[in-house]
Amino acid sequence: MSFISNASGITLREGTFNNIQGDLVNIFQAENLARVDIGALLESLLGEKRRRREESTDAEEPARKRRRENAEEDGPEVVRYKDLNLTHEIGRGPGYLLHAGNMKRRAVIVKVFNAGTNARKHFEVTANLSRRLLHPNVLRIEGTSSPTSMHLFIAYQDAHRKTAEGPLAAALRDDLERSIMLGFKLISSLSSGIDYLSTQGGMLPLEPENFDVFLDINDRFLLSINPPTDANTAHHDEDDIRSVWVFFNALCQKVTQLVKRMGR
């Protein structure tokens, strides 16, 4: 009795079978079904399928790796509005509000841009600058809305969900030793962050008002930049921008004034 090569779904009954091919592999001169080792047959069949699956996985792995690498190179992910949960407002600045929130079960700080004619440009300038900064004292970007979204926002790493002046004011009121320690860390963190920004062209023609300062759970101060929409991202010579030292002092004074205002 003969069958077509590569046939499948065949029912075997008593008799002699010759060269059955396809998914069942070859079986020669089986006098009856009882002489066929069903266990070996299934093991051979499953082993063949497993081998094909492994070969397919091995062939696809380089492509998957390239996709992961490309995603990392492209930077922060685009976040859908429904994947973002805002819990409460923690601050505000020119053209935006700051909120504590969660993004896909991760705690984040979210900068939501106010609606207006310059909102999209404001979002794009801020996102483009934040994407190219990487420093332990600069707030790291985690994701952004789509540039065409009705709600424009940038999600940053969680930083204790508070701007720095709140914890500083509480320490100054309740714990003198901690307030001194935080004061030293503030000076160290801001000087380190500003020095990095000055070497990366991130200072631009910025004022202290273009910065928010946060404090994370490890008492690390973090800078968040909010550049004006007309900021020129071209390189500036040292004589074209204010002295980094003067800027550092002005930013420290800004934080100090906010702390005093909260302590009243």
Any chance you could write out the topology, listing elements then pairs?
Layout: H1 38-74, E1 77-78, E2 84-93, E3 96-103, E4 106-113, H2 119-131, E5 141-144, E6 153-157, H3 165-174, H4 176-200, E7 211-215, E8 221-225, H5 244-263
Parallel strand pairs: 1-5
Antiparallel strand pairs: 2-3, 3-4, 4-6, 5-6, 7-8
Give a description of the structure.
InterPro entries: Kinase-like_dom_sf (IPR011009). This is Protein kinase domain-containing protein. It comes from Roridomyces roridus. This protein has helices at about 40-75, 120-130, 165-175, 175-200, 245-264; strands at about 75-80, 85-95, 95-105, 105-115, 140-145, 155, 210-215, 220-225. It has about 260 residues and is of the alpha+beta class. It has three domains: about 35-75; about 75-155, Phosphorylase Kinase, domain 1 (2-Layer Sandwich), CATH 3.30.200.20; about 165-264, no CATH class. The strands form two sheets. A six-stranded mixed sheet has the order 1-5-6-4-3-2, with helices on one face. Strand 5 and strand 6 form a beta hairpin. The radius of gyration is 32 Å and the shape is elongated. Residues about 25-35 and about 65-70 have low confidence and may be disordered.
From N to C, what is the helix and strand string? HEEEEHEEHHEEH
Radius of gyration: 32 Å
The number of helices is: 5
Oligomer: single chain
Task: Name the helicity range.
Answer: 25-40%
The biggest beta sheet, please?
Answer: 6 strands, mixed
The general outline is elongated
List keywords for this structure.
Phosphorylase Kinase, domain 1; six-stranded mixed β-sheet; two-stranded antiparallel ribbon; alpha+beta; single chain; 264 residues; 8 strands; elongated
